[in-house]
Amino acid sequence: MGKNKNIPLSRRTKKRRIADQISIMTRSLQANHPIISSTSHKSPELIHHSSDISENEFIQCNELHNILPDDLISDNQRPALSSEDELVKTSNSLEQFIENVRIWASNFKISNNSLDALLIILKEHKCFQQLPRTARTVMQTKPIDINNMHIVEPGHYYHFGIKKGIKRYLPNEFEGFDIKIVIGVDGLPISKSNSNQFWPILAYIRPSSAVFPIGIYFGKLKPKDSYQFLDEMCKEASELISYHK
Length: 245
What we know:
Blueprint: H1 11-32, H2 44-51, H3 64-67, H4 83-107, H5 112-122, H6 135-138, E1 149-152, E2 155-159, H7 162-169, E3 181-185, E4 188-189, E5 197-205, E6 211-219, H8 226-244
Antiparallel strand pairs: 1-2, 2-6, 3-5, 4-5, 5-6
Helix pairs in contact: 1-2
């Protein structure tokens, strides 16, 4: 039974066959074309030998540097990039790769522990040694200010703040004197398997439609005391109104 030509070639086999092809083409060019004045015309020998390479043996030029030893690649074959261009290209590629990982982890709800484990594996390869060490860096997760965490029976409440939302979401074209904020509260069950639930306090600035969180409560039951639940928001709102006056 003949060999199956669709079987992928190993890295060593690719190296050997490419080296053989380069050697054959070099000898042919030296014998028939000792001086090449232009790269726009291919010799018959080069075309002939290139056509002998099967589909599985075909490797793009940009892969030669990853497969062939350095001594088989002449300086003329290397890309004419300055060190600054190479640094910019590498930096942009790394930033884009991290961004792709961030989007992937977010879309598929990858946990931080799972992403940490993946980063450890990737960083073992030289191509990924510049990746961040932790999922928190990749996901750009900011640490929680523990001072903004409060006990609201029977759970906990975290206060993001009204002022932060105003600074971030106030429309650039806003020219008025009074800032009108619409605030809403609603309960959100987390899953059907337990009674854990969120009670966020959300707001938006008129006429904008961008919603931002003022605070969020988490617990197995809804807040027992609505005054305690809304206390931090009311305090900050009073301070902002007094400052405005």
